[in-house]
UniProtKB/TrEMBL annotation, chain A:
Name of one Pfam family that matches: MMgT
Protein name (database record): Magnesium transporter
Organism: Setomelanomma holmii
Domain of life the protein comes from: Eukaryota
Protein family according to the UniProt entry: Belongs to the membrane magnesium transporter (TC 1.A.67) family.
Record's subcellular location: Endomembrane system
Keyword Kinase appears in the UniProt entry: no
UniProt membrane topology term: Multi-pass membrane protein
Alphabetically ordered keywords of this record: Membrane, Transmembrane, Transmembrane helix
GO cellular component terms attached to this protein's record: EMC complex
GO biological process, any: protein folding in endoplasmic reticulum
TrEMBL record, chain B:
InterPro entries: EMC2-like (IPR039856), TPR-like_helical_dom_sf (IPR011990), TPR_EMC2 (IPR055217)
GO CC terms in record: EMC complex
Name of the protein in question: ER membrane protein complex subunit 2
Major place of residence: endoplasmic reticulum
Family stated for the protein in its record: Belongs to the EMC2 family.
The species this protein was found in: Setomelanomma holmii
Amino acid sequence: MSFLGPILNTLGALFLTHAVYSAHEHTTAFSSSPLPTDITLELLFSIVLLSTGIVISAQPLRPIETAKWAGQLSREGRKPDGQYTREGEAVLSEGDPYAFLGLDGGLGKGEGRKGFWDARGKRKEYEEWVRGKGE
Amino acid sequence: MSQANLLSPPTQINPPTALALSQKAPLILSHSPTSSLPWPLSLLFSRETPESWTIHENLFYSALRTGDETSARAILERLKARFGEQNERIITLVGVFNEATAKSNAELEKVFEEYEQILREDPTNMSVRKRRVAVLKSLGRTQDAITALTVLLQNSPTDVEAWAEASELYATQGAWGQAIYCAEEVLLMMPNAWSAHAHIATLHYLSTVSNNPPSLSSLALALKHFCRVVELNDSYLRGYYGLKLLTTKLIPLLSDAPQSSNKRGGNAQDDDDVPIPKLATVEKLEELATNKLGEIVRNASARKWMGYDEAEVIAARELLDRGGRIER
């Protein structure tokens, strides 16, 4: 399905260009006579193709209900959305907007809040892990 | 699953992830985001984006955690050169660096004195106030940390992060009433935060679980908050876990209790009028939580749903196994 959108868009753009070109040629050649119906029809057809193509190739819609949207975030986690920063880090999809509260991991666990980051405690935890691995 | 991503680091960083994060330091330090050209040209040829500085900050934190002080210092110098030493955030980062490299409690006290000095010059620097609380906590002076935090909250009562911290600090002291009050303040400002609802429900549950028999109104309140969690997020593992745990506790209590107290809003209840749920309602909730937990555990084990923490899934499976009816 992912290729259908671009195909429709390309076809639509071709028809649109052709219709506009024909209309321009017609008005320069016979400026007094009305525009032939086939040019009008081609123009309308190209617009229908383009609109369908744009709608089809759009991103999937996000759930409207909070519960469904939040549930989707919980189920899928954060995934790379295909873009990268200059440093080579993947840009991730939307995550839990309340993660900064640090209430996710239960009492006394988890990363905690950034403003109150426990520098020494985290360092000690890491040192213990390294020592445990060396033994 | 926790990925080592510096732009948006995972909410739970375990040591292996921290190591993976800080190993990106040489790559990032090898290219400076700012341009070395003179002024008007530097504007044209700069490679910096807002994301570069987020990445630098997160790298700074993970370098400190893994003891990579050389990288941390290099990043700090880069940030200083870009934003100036008087920037509030840079002052805080310098403080964090000093805290992490402090070898003993005496050195940490010195960092604390520096914070006092900074606050005497500029009492409005909120992030340094928060660091002060963190240092007190790290020194083991939890009571002083709570006092400092209450002063901070008096000056800035809309700081949700600080209310959440206060709630956890009170909870570590076993002061459940105050902890619940602080958690309710968080909910006032972020009524849709499912994690905050789960937190307050946990507090209600913990406040009464050691009593015998546990207070029915506290359990009912916890149940209510867990129901709200599930209402706000239809796949939050912690919400369903709590719901399951509470309903298994409540069902024997409610079936033992005399019929009169099962009525909603019974007038013989405690001073706070918490309606005690009906037995049938609780049983239905139990069924719902069991089904949903089973679904989450199955899909997470089959690696279909990747958003869950492994430890949490294991805990949920154990809870279900204890209940004795799960079809896997």
